[in-house]
Amino acid sequence: MSQRDQYRGSEPGQTRPRPALPRRSASPVLVLQRAIGNRGTTRVLARQGGSAQGTFENSVRIGKLGPIEITESNIGDWIAKKDVDDLVVTTAKGKHSDELKRMSDSKTRIDNIEVQSITGENSWVVVTFKNAIIVGYTPDQSGKTEHWKATQFDHVDIKRTSIGKQRP
User: Fold this and answer.
1) Helices of type H across 15-125
2) pLDDT > 70: what percent of the chain?
3) Are 69 and 49 in contact (CB under 8 A)?
4) Which CATH number is correct for 53-162, 2.40.30.170, 3.40.47.10, 3.40.30.10, 2.30.110.20?
5) Which of 6, 63, 92, 166 could bridge across to 162 with cysteines, CB 3.0–4.6 Å?
6) Quick one: which of 44, 20, 21 has its CA closest to 31?
7) Where are the beta strands (DSSP E) in 53-154?
8) pLDDT tens digits for 40-49?
9) Which residue has the higher pLDDT, 163 or 101?
């Protein structure tokens, strides 16, 4: 005979009421989204690294360098899956510029070049170029930007992320 946990209340044969299961807490992302809204959540999630590094609507990480602000690029063609051969980028000059020039001059392969672009109010796209070579580094005459190209990569990976319903 199996043993039952009998409730020793007023009625015989009554079983003990089971305690309620603990409530599932909401995802930290959903709690954040409810607190600061879609746009604010997108900006927070787009951040990587320490607080000394900026957050940009369009940025690139070249290996361990970055995020670097992109002022102009053809990443939209990559996201739209148009027929393009190379990633052409104009970035803001900064502490990374000397290393970027060295990479271009040496033509060494870079494991990952990761371009992140916020596309809409609550969506962003990360395009990763694997095993690429940086060529054609040229600083702008104004001294504020630099032009370069990533080429001869082995693979391109495009990941889209949205919070809630995707918007254009």
Assistant:
1) 28-46, 75-79, 97-106
2) 74
3) no
4) 2.30.110.20
5) 166
6) 44
7) 58-62, 65-73, 87-92, 109-118, 123-139, 145-151
8) 777 777 665 4
9) 101
pTM over 0.70: no
Instruction: Provide CB contacts within 8 A for 59, sequence distance 6+.
Output: 66, 67, 68, 69, 70, 115, 116
Buried b (16+ CB within 10 A) or exposed e, 144-164: ebbebbbbebeeeeeeeebbe
The token pair that represents 98 in the structure block: 């000397």
Helix intervals (H) in 47-95: 75-79
Phi, psi of 116 (to 5 degrees): -115, 135
Q: Which two tokens stand for residue 149?
A: 């190209």
Question: For position 166, what pLDDT does the model report?
Answer: 54
Report the distance separating Cα 161 and Cα 61, nearest Å. Answer: 18
Query: Residue 98 in 3-state DSSP?
Result: helix
Q: How confident is the model at residue 153 (pLDDT cuts 50, 70, 90)?
A: very high
The pLDDT assigned to 51 comes to: 47
